[in-house]
Amino acid sequence: MQNSVEVDYRKKTVIKQKSSTFEYLKKHYFLYLMLAPALILTLIFKYGPMYGAIIAFKDFSPIKGIMGSEWVGFYNFEKFLSSPNFTVIFMNTLKLSLFGLILGFPVPILLALMLNQVRRAGVKKNIQLLLYAPNFISVVVVVGMLFIFLSPTGPINQLFNLFTDEPIMFMSRPEYFRWIYILSDIWTGAGWASIIYVAALANVDPELHNAANLDGANLLQRIRHIDLPTIRPIMAIVFILAAGGIMSIGFEKAYLLQTTTNLPAAEIIPTYVYKIGLQSGDYAYSSAVGLFNSVINVIMLLTVNFIVKKLNEGEGLY
């Protein structure tokens, strides 16, 4: 008798939940209609192309098509993992991403904290304009500027010529590639990335700083105990997203910075996929390499999110 009562209660609870959900959707249907275009576009252009990932498991032939090509399982993945290029390409990608994250992540936060201390609105706007402007410069233009400034006859080498007789070959030596890529990335993107932190700091109640001043707190103490706790949740989310895309380096800039002599450090997974897939026409193998890269990104995203939630009082991406 008790079991039947429990079953009836559960059924009534489920029916009540379904009816409340239906009523909520009926009441707010207009919001879901506004969401529909973005959802449809995401399904078409993000999830739809995932069907093509199946060619990573096939001996793909454009003539036979995806379904007509022979199934080879994990052969393409094994081919990449056993390739002599695997270790070099994987480590180049990992080092470039990891160093970029370590060096680049704190910079927007520091810029936002410094901008927050500028009280004159006109000066603050001019500084923000200078910081945000590099983000709108084309990657091709940025690379062209790097080649000009760092060439043997460029202004940087002209400065070094005051202390040494031989120019430094920045663009052709592998040991300089990583620093050039990362530092130029910070220059172009740090100012724009600081916007989210500046917006968060704008919501800090000025009375908190006034009270801290009356209590004798100095600038660093106010930043530590007022500003940083305010932006900590945003820092966690941004860090998780950045770590989740740690293997997704921008292809364009790396490819444009490559020269024949710096390839030992400049060849990364995105450029390798481009060369193997589009230039050599080995679509199945290049798809396997790209899918391998995506799987690593997903694993990194889940791992970092788990660690951040443990360290950040349960606050993470999801």
Automatic annotation (TrEMBL):
PROSITE patterns reported for this sequence: ABC_TM1
SUPFAM superfamilies hit by this protein: MetI-like
Gene Ontology biological process terms in this record: transmembrane transport
Annotated ABC transmembrane type-1 domain residues: 90-304
InterPro entries: MetI-like, MetI-like_sf, UgpAE/MalFG_permease
GO CC field: plasma membrane
TM region(s), chain numbering: 29-48, 96-115, 127-150, 179-200, 231-251, 283-308
Protein's membrane topology: Multi-pass membrane protein
Record flagged with keyword Metal-binding: no
Subcellular localization: Cell membrane
Keyword Membrane: yes
Domain of life where this protein originates: Bacteria
Keywords: Cell membrane, Membrane, Transmembrane, Transmembrane helix, Transport
Family named by the database record: Belongs to the binding-protein-dependent transport system permease family.
Protein name: ABC transporter permease
Gene source species: Paenibacillus durus (Paenibacillus azotofixans)
Organism phylogeny: Bacteria, Bacillati, Bacillota, Bacilli, Bacillales
